[in-house]
Amino acid sequence: MNGRIQRITSLFRVFGGLGLTLWAALQWGAWAGLGVAMIFIAGPALVMLPSFLVLRFIPPAPGLPVAPMSDLLQAWWREVVSVTAVFSWNQPWAEHRHPDHLPAHAHGRRGMLLLHGYSCNRGLWNAWMKRLRQLDIPHIALTLEPAFGSIDDYAPAIDRAMRDLHRATGLPPLIVGHSMGGLSARAWWRSQGHPSDRIHHILSLGTPHQGTLLAKLGTTVNARQMRGDSAWLLALAQDEPAAIGDYFDCLYGHCDQVVFPAETAILPGARVLHLPARGHLQLVFEPEAFDRAIALLSKD
C-alpha cells in the first residue's frame, strides 16, 4: 500500500511540477517558470527544516547531549538526501528489486530479519540487502501490512519470517528494526510469550521505545500507539520481562526529528550507540548501523 501511495506522489511531483512550470513560463515568462520549478525542487527540503530546528527547544534527559545548531543543519541536509532517495525511488519503484536470500547452504549461518518503520516498506533496506547478499548472509525483509493498522497485526508475518529463517539456518535470527520496526519486533516477541530460543538479538534504529512527541499529530492506529502515554505502549512495557534490555542494542541520535526527546529511543538496560548529526531516516544508512548488525550476528 505504501509503495502505491508513494508512486502516485512521485508521479504527481514530476508531472505536476513540469506542468505548472510550463504553465507559469507561458503565462508570465521564463523566470516565473524557473521559480515554480525551484519550489517543486527545493520545497520538500525547506518544509523539513523546521522539524530539525525545533529540536533546539526540546532538551534531552540529563546526561544526554543537546544538539548544537551545526549538527542540526548537517542532519537536515543528510536527511533530505536520504528521504529523496527512499521516497522517490527505493520504496515506490524498487520495493522488490532485491529478493530475500535463503540459500540452500544457509544452515549454520545466522540470518537477519529487516523491519521497516511507519509509512515505509521493504525498499528501505535495498542498500542493506545488496550488501547482505554479497556477504552471503541469509535475510528476509518484510513489508508490514496493513500499513496504518495496529502494530500487533504485523506479528503473524514476522513470526512466519522468523520461522523461515530459523528453519533455513538452524539458528535463531537477528532482528534489525528501524523506527516502528523495533516496536513491531517487541510486539511479535510478546505474542510468542518472549521465548529466548526464538530470537538472537534485536538492533533498533531510532525506535520510539518510550513513544515520541511527534505521534501526537498522528491519527492512524499505529501512530496513536507510538504516543508516549498510549495504553498500547504502556501495556507492551508492562508485559515484558525485566531483562528485556539484555536483548537490545539501541542506536539513536540527538538530531532525530521524528523520535524525540532523544531518550525515548533508548530501552532501559539495552546497549546504546549514539550518532551525532543524523536525522531519523539517515540512521539506516550509517556505516555504524550496518557494522553493528554484522557484529551482532556472531555475538554469543
Write the layout of secondary structure elements.
Layout: H1 2-28, H2 30-53, H3 69-93, E1 112-115, H4 126-134, E2 139-141, H5 155-169, E3 174-178, H6 180-191, E4 201-205, H7 221-225, H8 231-239, E5 248-252, E6 271-274, H9 287-297
Helix pairs in contact: 1-2, 1-3, 2-3, 5-6
How would you describe the overall organization of this protein?
With 300 residues, the chain is of the alpha/beta class. The protein is built from nine helices and six strands; from the N terminus they run αααβαβαβαβααββα. The protein has helices at 2-28, 30-53, 69-93, 126-134, 155-169, 180-191, 221-225, 231-239, 287-297, and strands spanning 112-115, 139-141, 174-178, 201-205, 248-252, 271-274. It has a six-stranded parallel sheet, with helices on both faces. Helix 6 links the parallel strand 3 (174-178) and strand 4 (201-205). The longest helix has 27 residues, at 2-28. The mean pLDDT is 91.
Label this structure with key terms.
300 residues, alpha/beta, 6-stranded parallel sheet, 9 helices, 6 strands
Summarize the structure.
With 300 residues, the chain is an alpha/beta fold.
Per DSSP E runs of 2 or more residues, the count of β-strands stands at 6
Q: What is the ordering of alpha helices and beta strands? A: HHHEHEHEHEHHEEH
Report the major sheet.
6 strands, parallel
Please report which band the strand proportion falls in: under 5%, 5-15%, 15-25%, 25-35%, 35-45% or over 45%: 5-15%
Helix content: 40-55%
Mean pLDDT: 91
Query: Structural class of the helix and strand makeup?
Result: alpha/beta
